[in-house]
Amino acid sequence: MSSEIATPDDAPRPGTGLLRRLAGPALAVLAGAVVLVLVHGLSRGIDYHAMVRALRAMPAGLLGRSVAATAISFLALIARDWCALRYAQARVPVAALFLASFCGSALGNAVGFGALTGGAVRYRIYGAVGAKPEQIGAVMGFITVGFGLGLAGFAAASALFAAGPVAHVLGWPVAVLQAGAWAVLVAVAAVILAAAIRRRPIGRGRFSVAVPSPGLLLLQILLTALDLVGAAAALWVLLPAGPVGLADFSAIFAVATALGVLSHVPGGIGVFEAVILYALGHRVSPSLAAAALLGYRAIYFGLPLLLSAVLLAGAELARSGTVLRSAGKLAPVFLSTITFAIGIMLLVSGATPAFSHRLALLHSVLPLWVVETSHFLGSVAGVLLLFVARGLFHRLDGAWWLGITIAFASLAMSLAKGMAYGEAAVILCLILLLLATRRHFTRRTSLLRQPFTVGWFAAVALVLAGAGWVLFFAFRDVAYAHEMWWQFEFDAQAPRALRAFLGAALLAAAASLWQLLRPAAGRVAPPDAEDLARAAAIIRGQDRAEAVLGLMGDKSFLFSASGNALLMYAKRGRSWVALFDPIGPRAEWAELIWRFIELADDHGGRAAFYQVRSDSLPLYLDAGLKVMKLGEEARLALGAFDLAGSHRSGLRYALKRGEREGLALELIPPAEVPAAMVDLEAISRAWLATRHAHEKSFSVAAFVPAYLAVQSVALLRQNGKPVAFASLMSTERRGEAGIGIMRHTDGASPYAMEFLFTRLALDLKQQGFTSLSLGMAPLAGLGRGPLASYWHRIAGLLWEHGGRVYNFQGLRSFKGKFQPEWEPRYLAATGTIGPFVALADVAALAGGAPRVETA
User: Which residue from 21, 72, 335 is spatially nearest to 229, judged by alpha carbons?
Assistant: First the structure.
């Protein structure tokens, strides 16, 4: 990497940047506090010991029926994916359908933001079996719309059948509720009717979105209803029989689910439970209802997540077939989630009393100090796993070793502190999963150097707050006394839990303080001559012509550990923007992507990757980045390029007309470019003057003599006078060529550039080049249909009405004359709004704006 010089400008400054960084975590902490207050108020009627007894006394038959209902729900989710694939006209193997839908749904349910987390899983698996990114995006859009319509329709229909309970939950009059329910049902029916009437796509041309058939849309809504009924039944069978029927409970469940989704709390945890407890009121014992909710969380959320990790670990061990190899690469994401969940489990276990008869058995086997130490260290291990989970997500070798060490130690401590067999079994599963997926954790970055975001610390703080609430809830009948801190006895469980919680909280606080006191990161310096020489050797030895832009000298470099690959990047504001995919051996791309994200995190910034290709999207999705389409690049396959046929008549005419007007193309090799620099500079100055423009940078080639001198240049003369030129980016492999800087004078023939590109393509074909990149058409291929994202809709408006600012359609129309293959290009960035902010910073960088290094 190019050198970094620490300057006072890089120190964090109070202001809008800091407020933006703190706003999201602060809202999350506030929401968590509100949820804790709600749950605390509803827990007054819950007896902890009665809840635990009810949970332990649940018959195996009831648990089996809950598992069966969960299976029905997930089968409906798999069928929903099948419908969405049919809508997107994507054909995938059955194994890919099952893995993507089941694992994506399990992760989305557990972590929250289902469309986002589930989308990453589907991109990885469906993309591996040939589905295009646009098709996968359509799948996710169809699932999201179908779920929204299905949830609304199911909740409205249920409310009509159970108006009383639902009105009680919402605090509405029954008549108002029924009127609202009918209005929602009419709206859903109207959507289905509109789909039946309008069979034509919505939009125009490339921006059209196919309208799903009414049968497919109705089936998607019915499958969503089946999913909700199955999930509701999974909880309902665990409740005491009699007080509430399944129909009434399904309505309550739909309302609780909707409120949980709207809260944006992962899995709706706390919000969902509060609604259920409030709705059941006095009809079900609060202790029994709480026991059922705990069982439901374990079966419907925990079991599928664990099973998904087992399936992915099995795919990793099998390593056969495209689907299994692709699915195995998702294992770190699931293991990170499971590790975080086990960390929560250990903290909650340390805050709750062990069973008395098990402690009595330990009394006769182990000394007191072993039990006390195991209980204390078990909670400390829980906090450590919360931090290790982030390292596992980043595939760190050190995180794997620390995780496996803590897991083995926790396995022994779970037995020593209270013979917690269930806890030990879950930890044993984690150990086996870590061992099965060892090869994915090979990154040598130190875990201690790993930057943790404010959001991660907010999550840890919420977990500790929840564990603290559980501590006081479980021991609410124990009066506090100062002597508890030094009370050590086998049956003194409250003091033991209190000490363990204090140790865990102090460790978390120390880790947070250590991160806050880390030195500020330095400013990025331009590359020096040595960096440029190293970069040039890598760029010249690979086959992507676009990489030659790295030799302009305006971008810094991040080199791989081996020195065989690099990322080129620039920084503006808090945006660290890498241009294109990594350059060099593909095996080193993932490592460079992770290192760049960590570099941006370490500076308190956002990481973005500009103009990445569709075949590399899984690498960015695996890293947790958000992806949005930028446009399409025009690539001309030179092997099949000729001027025969009616579809090439326009190009033939441009050549003949140009020849009549005295146009002639000269391809100047790099060694002779300096001699022609005076003519090239004159054309460039004239071009800039007539457009009142200045030189661009970053993603756009600029007139830099040293940069032009290492490329071939296509110089166009008209009657012997230089009137236009285009630099030709290529590497030593001479497979792919690309257009760099293009300039022409106003006096040139109107057919000059068309003549230049046509003649150049024919000459490159004769020289053995396989393809010619004509550059990207921004915003091309982004639709504005009802399933499109907000970005696609905004981009569609810019495409149609932004001609006064930038000739989007004219640029694509010109390149379309050559009938190229259009390949999508994407932006991948961290954060929810990160892609939009990064895109604005990229525009400023490309426009030649000075770099702004402050936060």
Answer: 72
Q: What is the pLDDT of residue 383?
A: 92
Contacts of 339 (CB under 8 A, 6+ apart): 385, 388, 389, 392, 403, 430
Contact 351, 472 (CB under 8 A): no
Cα 150 from chain centroid? 25
Residue type at position 820: P
Q: Cα–Cα distances in Å, from 94 out to 70, 170, 388, 472, 562?
A: 21, 42, 35, 49, 40
Which tokens is 200 given?
């034509």
| Rounded Cα–Cα distance for residues 483 and 487 (Å) | 6
Pairing of strands 575-583, 566-572: antiparallel
Residue 745, helix vs strand vs coil: coil
- Residues of the chain whose pLDDT is less than 50? 1-17, 115, 205-207, 519, 521-522, 780-781, 783-808, 849-855
Signed CA dihedral, 669, 671, 675, 679: sign only: positive
Residue type, 585: P
What pLDDT is attached to residue 515? 67
pTM of the model: 0.69
CA 344 to CA 379: how far, in whole Å? 9
Residues 493, 566: Cα–Cα separation, whole Å:
56
Residue pair 110/116 in contact (Cβ under 8 Å)? The answer is no
The predicted-structure confidence for 422-451, as pLDDT tens digits, reads as follows 899 999 999 999 998 888 887 776 555 566
Amino acid at 73: S
**Which CA distances in Å does 291 have to 286, 297, 338, 432, 700?**
9, 10, 22, 29, 61
- Strand 821-829 with 771-778, pairing: unpaired
- Cβ 98 vs Cβ 78: under 8 Å: yes
Please state, in angstroms and as integers, the Cα–Cα distance from residue 260 to each residue in 156, 190, 215, 264, 269, following that order. Answer: 17, 26, 29, 7, 7
With beta carbons less than 8 A apart as the criterion, state whether 223 and 215 touch: no
- For the chain, the farthest-separated pair of C-alpha atoms sits apart, in whole angstroms, at 105
Please give the pLDDT value at position 509. 85
Task: Compute the distance between CA of residue 299 and CA of residue 666 in angstroms, rounded to an integer.
Answer: 72
Q: How far apart are CA 657 and CA 710, in angstroms?
A: 32
The strand ranges marked E within 497-562 are: 523-524, 556-559
Question: Which residues in 745-816 belong to E strands, given as ranges?
Answer: 771-778
Encoded amino acid at 395, one letter: R
Contact between residue 728 and residue 715 where contact means Cβ atoms under 8 Å apart: no
Residue 302 DSSP class: I
| Distance, CA of 841 to CA of 494 (rounded, Å) | 54
Looking at residue 211, the DSSP 8-state letter turns out to be: P
User: What amino acid is encoded at 340 in this protein?
Assistant: F
Whether the Cβ atoms of residue 209 and residue 201 lie closer than 8 Å to each other:
yes
Per cent of the chain over pLDDT 90 is 15
Contact partners, residue 16, CB within 8 Å, separation at least 6 = none
Give SS3 for 699. coil
Closest to 578 measured CA to CA, from 589, 586, 570: 570
Q: What span, in angstroms and rounded, lies between the C-alpha atoms of 110 and 113?
A: 9
Residues 521, 602: contact at Cβ < 8 Å?
yes
